[in-house]
Amino acid sequence: MCTLLCLCIRPVSVHLDYALFRPTASVVEVAGLSYNNLFDVSLAAIYSAMEGVGGSTVHVVVSKSGWLSAGYGDMTTVALAQEYNNGFDTACAAYKWDTKET
């Protein structure tokens, strides 16, 4: 997933609220589906790519996700890392695990 990398490379195109699972994040519509955080839309892109090459029955496992706590200026603080981890945990607990229903 490119969460922090996207923000560091192109901070204007990815809003911090969207990357941090904040409820104030605007909803992004892609092909008729709505996404309210960067993780969901990134996972949907993976599923779509897999489907495009005939891999729709392959299970995708997210083995690691996180936020740097130092090293890239204002975007990498302990507070933001904690907020991301909390948002990620909450999102995973509520996740439907079918991006077509998100």
Q: What can you see in these coordinates?
A:
The protein has 102 residues and is mainly α. The chain has one domain. The protein has helices at 3-9, 16-19, 38-52, 78-94; strands at residues 28-30, 33-35. Strands 1-2 form a two-stranded antiparallel sheet. The protein is globular. The mean pLDDT is 80. It comes from Amborella trichopoda. InterPro entries: GH, Glyco_hydro_17, Glyco_hydro_17_plant. Belongs to the glycosyl hydrolase 17 family. This is Glucan endo-1,3-beta-D-glucosidase.
Summarize the structure.
42% of the residues lie in helices and 6% in strands. It contains four helices and two strands; from the N terminus they run ααββαα.
Roughly what is the average pLDDT, rounded to an integer? 80
Outline: globular
Share in helix? 40-55%
What is the beta-strand fraction?
5-15%
Uncertain regions spanning at least 5 consecutive residues: none
SSE order: HHEEHH
The overall number of domains is 1
Secondary-structure class: mainly alpha
Count of individual beta strands: 2
Q: Strands of the biggest beta sheet: in what spatial order?
A: 1-2
Radius of gyration: 14 Å
Counting copies of identical and different chains, the oligomeric state is: single chain
Number of helices: 4
Describe the main β-sheet briefly.
Answer: 2 strands, antiparallel
**Between the first and last Cα atoms, what is the distance in angstroms?**
17 Å
